[in-house]
Amino acid sequence: MAKAHFHKNQRVFVKPVGTWAIIEGLVPQWAKGVEEPIKITYDVGLGREFGSDELQSEEVAISSELNGGVEWRLIRGQNKWKSAEECSHHPHPGTYPVVVTNDQDWGGWRVPGAEYDHNPAEVEWQARVISHSLSCVNLLRKITDYAEEAPENLSNQLVSMVLDAKNILKSIEN
Fold it and tell me: Is the Cα dihedral 45, 51, 55, 58 positive or negative?
C-alpha cells in the first residue's frame, strides 16, 4: 500500500524540472477491493503529476556522521488550525516547522500555533538554529581539539575565539 511522503501546501523541489513548487494536491490511485491507495502522485501545478521519487522536501538533515550517529531534522507539520489561505503571510502557508530529534518523526521541538502565527519568520529562524545545533557543537569541538593539538598555529584573535568555544562547550556539557 502507498504512503504519502509529502502533504498539501508543502514546498518541494521538483527534480526533473529543477524548480521549487508547492504541492497543490495529492492524487491517490485506487484499486477495486483495496482499502488503501496503491500509488500516490502529487500535483504541483506544473502540467503533470510527479511521484515521490521526483520530489525533494525542504527537510534539513544534519549529517549523522558528524554528530556521532544522532540526526536532528527540520520537517514541516500540517497546520490544523488554519488553512493555507488564512495564513498566506507565513513563509510556508499551511505548515509550521518541527525539529525532530529521534529516528521516528515525533519527539523534539514544536511551537504553539498562536506563537507561530504571531511571528513566523522568527520561529522559522529558531527551527533552523535548533536543527543545526548538533553540527555547531561538533564544530566547536573540532576547533578546540585543533587548538589543543597545534597551539602555535593560532593568532591572538583565534585564541580568544577558542576560549569562547571552550566556555560554550563547558556550559552545554555540564
Answer: positive
Report in angstroms the alpha-carbon separations of 39 from 30, 46, 71, 80: 7, 20, 29, 25
Closest CA to 2 of 32, 24, 34: 34
Sign of CA dihedral 82, 87, 90, 91: positive
Q: How many other C-beta atoms lie within 10 A of the C-beta of residue 75?
A: 19
Alpha carbon distances (Å) from 53 to 3, 58, 94, 156: 13, 14, 23, 50
Location of C-alpha cell 569562547? 164
CA dihedral 132, 135, 139, 140 (to 10 degrees): 70
Say how far apart CA 161 and CA 166 lie, in whole Å.
Answer: 9
pLDDT tens-digit series, residues 110-153 = 887 778 888 888 988 898 888 888 889 989 999 999 999 988 88
CB burial of 91-129 (b: ≥16 within 10 Å; e: otherwise) equals: ebbbbbbbbbeeeeeeebebbeeeebbeebeebbeebee
